[in-house]
Amino acid sequence: MQSIVENFLSGVILRLDQTIRPGDVVEVHDRWLKIDRLGVRNTFGTTAKGEEVMVPNATAAQSTITSLTREDRLYRVGTQIGVACSADLVQVRRTLEGAVAGLEWRSSQSESKVFLEEFTRFSVNYAVLVWIDDLDTARQRHSDLNEALWSSLKEAGIEIPSV
I want to staple 159 with a disulfide (CB 3.0 to 4.6 A). Which of 69, 84, 95, 146 is the partner? Predict the structure, then answer.
């Protein structure tokens, strides 16, 4: 009975706070989930693979949930890519930013980002974030982004190390 009451009260809190809303895309336990509806005891959503998932409202209210949706309903697609430690980092940044700028499918409502994430013994690692308008294309766009980055780095003669 305690879990029923806890899930019910958590559902009320989620609705009042509008922490998550139908249409939002969140990451819960390493899975992307598009919120379909908030029920009395459970939150219902669909994964990128089309799986229907039910999350108890208490779990949704008490867990760390990463929102992948902005207020304007854009969705973030991101990837990481490493280059050789000997690479010219100015050229790498220009190449990555140029590759992203050439993606006709990226949303014009938000600026894409390129970040130098870390240095390792084997590579210099970058994170690239691009916003898209349609979640249903996220897997394809993630693949398209990876291919565009790979091709641009290869064309520029920038080595991608194999470990």
Answer: 84
Task: Tell me which residue of 88, 114, 17 sits closest to 57, measured CA to CA.
Answer: 17
**Using one digit for the tens of pLDDT, what is the confidence trace for 72-87?**
678 889 999 999 999 9
As to burial, measured by CB atoms within 10 angstroms (0-12 exposed, 13-18 middle, 19+ buried), residue 20 is: buried
Q: Would you give the end-to-end CA distance of the chain in angstroms?
A: 53
Token output for 112: 């894409």
* Unique residue bearing structure tokens 């005891």: 41
Q: Which CATH number fits domain 2-67: 2.60.40.10, 1.50.10.10, 2.30.30.60, 1.10.357.20?
A: 2.30.30.60
Tell me, rounded to whole angstroms, the distance of Cα 11 from its chain centroid. Answer: 25
CATH of domain 75-155: 3.30.70.100
